[in-house]
Amino acid sequence: MTLSFTSLGLSEPQVRQLDKVGFSAPTPIQAQAIPHLLAGRDVVGQAHTGTGKTAAFALPILEQIDPKNPAVQALILTPTRELAVQVCQAIKNVSGDRRIYTLAIYGGQSIERQISRLTKGCQIAVGTPGRVLDLLQRGALKLDQLNWLVLDEADEMLNMGFIQDVEKILSKAPSERQTAFFSATMEAAVRELAAKFLRSPVTVTVEQPKAAPTRINQIAYVLPRGWNKSRALRPILEMEDPDSAIIFVRTRRTAAELTRQLQAAGHSVDEYHGDLTQSQRERLLLRFRQRQVRWVVATDIAARGLHVDDLTHVINYELPDSPESYVHRIGRTGRAGKEGIAISLIHPLEKYKLRQIERHVRQKLEFGTIPTRAEIAARHLEKLQAQVQEAITGERMASFLPIVSQLNESYDLRTIAAAALQMAYDQTRPAWMRVDAQPDTPEETSAPAKPVREGSSRPTRKRASTSPRQD
Question: Which domains does the chain have, with CATH numbers?
């Protein structure tokens, strides 16, 4: 029997609002958690991002909020400012009651503005531990009428070092409250925190499917002997030429250095990490979504709030620590029934990580070889031919015909066309592919590259494309 939101105990007005915003049936985590939360029980929920856990705790909260009371009645803690904004927006979408005000509170935004909003009235506060604690210490955020406290992505919050701030906040909240923890993993620290601050909690678990989506084409490039990842990435990017991509790295320093290198090579790219202010992050996210920036180099923590429609590529410049994080990363592409490409650069010493990922996703990854200059040049010529065919039918071609007629007095038409193509090609060719550049692909170096894996070496992938570069 298919469950409905009504059967879970939600009110008719709330169900009508869910139907209005496109929520037709509850997800497994919602079906398990909502009845317990409506019944007043504390809950520990194990569920990954994308399973619908925000609505799992938001809907019971909205059912019991008193819109006539302007005091903070529910507090939701998140590890990052991006997630705070995301959760806040999700609650507003499913609420439908204009009398209920939800506020995102986080560092990097004017604290005076947040204090002003809290003074005017706010029933639900969603925030990061540091800013929440700051507002509590200033007396601007009062928890004396708090009925709900939710810890979202509890494992990530503890991994980021927020354990002391979280415990201080939990200890300041009224003892007579309902508490829920949601976490992707149930590490010992999460269990200890739950045992300390929750009252006889019910545990609900939704298993994350291990297999990666089949619509994502996963390719691994094992670095040739003596190569670093920066050197390997350049020809791969030139061959793939992603319309939009997130390039994942592990540290802020690597993000800044790789971004600088790619920008110097003429690519449309910017960095996204924890050192950026909130306003800088918001501006970059807007530019990325509007395709003003084609590629973003990001750390995992910062990228939690980085969601872009029609993302064509995810590139693992550096592999994550866990196979679960790998699936989370590559799941940002290939959405809404579209195909996506996930590329991973593998140092030979990291092959054990690759085997762990393959076991986890229950798939064998495709292996590619670093494209040579000749292959990249052929791809550029293919694109150039497609662009010329498109230009022939364009309106602007007529304005160039007088120039061709003048040149035709001294040269034949084929020579003129070839010269124009050469000029166009030279403008799009990357600097490192110049004739005088040093060999930069495995097949062109004196030392032969080691085979990727016995019996698994495959020819370089080639994809025809008619999209012009917009670097």
Answer: 12-205 (3.40.50.300), 209-243+310-471 (3.40.50)
